[in-house]
Write a structure and sequence with these properties.
This protein has one domain: P-loop containing nucleotide triphosphate hydrolases (Rossmann fold, 3-Layer(aba) Sandwich), CATH 3.40.50. About 45% of the residues lie in helices and about 25% in strands. It is built from 9 helices and 9 strands. α1 packs parallel to α2, α4 crosses α5 and α6 packs parallel to α7. The radius of gyration is 17 Å and the shape is globular.
Length: about 250
């Protein structure tokens, strides 16, 4: 199943805008992107969530699986609301149904996590890494570029790889209009520290653009070659999985 899980080095690093930019870029490449937010916290029923915002900006379709009203980590928010945490399997089943409904061979699902990489999303202390492993989806890491970003990015990448999940690359979630020395040198040093390539950087304030502006500019925020390689690899993996299942 072609899917990419999007995580961040922390909360508020730009995951939703990056997810929207990836969706808009995928659409330009002829894919059918869907955005999935497995767990949303901090909003009551009927209020637009992260998936809705990413869909508004990108023009892609979006689905949210489960929501807890308080603006807390999913584990604590679920506990305080009296709701149960879903299992990793249940979340994965919902996402797989979305991806494999048979209506589109070019369907791509972008799975946006909550907070940082080790935030508990599901029962049994499961995180987005566990969900990505279940989906056989690579993970893309959204990072800042300010002082301290190298440490945050390396810790996140190491946690993903320790679980046996592939890192698709890094994206800077908000690149300043006037980058300072730390921003520029960190951008150059990310690969040395993490072994993961920088696929792009989203200009600060991009989330404030009108949807048509956002969609027309999004592809220019990424390294087009790196992004094309990612899409190609996803479909090669899908073809290999289908061949293996046939045999």
């Amino acid at each position: 199943m072609p899917a990419v899980a999007i995580t961040g080095t922390s909360t508020d690093v730009g995951k939703t805008v990056v997810t929207a930019a990836l969706a808009a870029s995928a659409a330009r490449a002829g894919l059918d992107p869907w955005i999935c937010k497995p767990v949303q916290t901090g909003l009551r029923e009927g209020e637009p969530g992260d998936a809705d915002e990413a869909a508004r900006l990108s023009g892609a379709r979006a689905v949210e699986v489960v929501r807890y009203p308080e603006p807390l980590s999913p584990l604590i928010a679920a506990r305080r609301s009296g709701a149960r945490l879903w299992s990793t399997g249940e979340l994965a089943d919902e996402i797989e149904r979305l991806a494999d409904d048979g209506s589109a061979r070019n369907r791509l699902v972008l799975v946006e996590g909550a907070g940082g990489v080790l935030v508990r999303l599901a029962a049994q202390k499961a995180t987005l890494v566990d969900l990505a492993a279940r989906l056989r989806a690579p993970m893309l890491v959204v990072t800042g570029a300010e002082l301290g970003a190298l440490n945050h990015a390396e810790l996140t990448v190491n946690a993903i790889r320790a679980a046996g999940v592939e890192v698709a690359g890094l994206v800077v979630g908000s690149w300043p209009a006037r980058p300072q020395l730390a921003h520029r040198t960190n951008l150059e040093a990310f690969y040395e520290h993490t072994g993961a390539r920088v696929l792009g950087k989203i200009p600060e304030g991009a989330g404030g653009l009108r949807p048509e502006e956002f969609q027309s500019q999004a592809l220019g925020w990424f390294d087009k070659g790196e992004l094309a390689d990612l899409w190609q690899k996803l479909w090669q993996n899908r073809a290999a999985e289908e061949q293996n299942s046939f045999y």
